[in-house]
Design a protein that fits this description.
The complex is a heterodimer of chains A (114) and B (112). By secondary structure, chain A is mainly β. In chain A, the strands form two sheets. In chain A, strands 2, 4, 5, 6, 9, 10 and 11 form a seven-stranded mixed sheet that branches. In chain B, strands 2, 4, 5, 9, 10 and 11 form a six-stranded mixed sheet that branches. In chain B, strands 1-3-8-7-6 form a five-stranded antiparallel sheet, with no helix packed on it. The chains are: A mainly beta (114), B mainly beta (112).
Amino acid sequence: NAGVTQTPKFQVLKTGQSMTLQCAQDMNHNSMYWYRQDPGMGLRLIYYSASEGTTDKGEVPNGYNVSRLNKREFSLRLESAAPSQTSVYFCASSSRQGGTGELFFGEGSRLTVL
Amino acid sequence: SQQGEEDPQALSIQEGENATMNCSYKTSINNLQWYRQNSGRGLVHLILIRSNEREKHSGRLRVTLDTSKKSSSLLITASRAADTASYFCATVVLNAGNMLTFGGGTRLMVKP
């Protein structure tokens, strides 16, 4: 059982380039989330999808877009990367909405924007 | 802004000692969760305590919740070197959407 799988694990971009982070879960969870983790800041929610077909902004959505492709997959897109988006990105999923259940996290995608 | 704040930011103890980490939050919550993160890895859920619960145990973990003081503590008893990790509390603010908000974490080092 793979759980939550993120790709790529590492990526280096130049300012202005675009890229998509992929996330897939095999636990049949309805809710999926994208967080970013910066030193000393904990995790901050970028976007979430409470169920297939819905997406909502989190705390720090500017500069990002998301797509809930199907129940399994939730992608995060950076249209024009900026150095401030250098971070570790985590995808998570949950069987319950609204943070009422535990989140299962992927191993993270480490992004550097030069 | 962070809803939960852990204290201390860093903690270093000897193997066998107990480790206590605290989390304070600002507004009424539905539940509070604790997560562990090993270096370079994703977060792993440890325990969830609901707002109507005061204490919960899981193996060597003991979590307390004091809603009047808006605080929670995580106690790890008889610590092991393998407990070395960062520990985060996370809360869901009532009537504020589906946002599970994390604190900045406590970095625990357990020396063998």
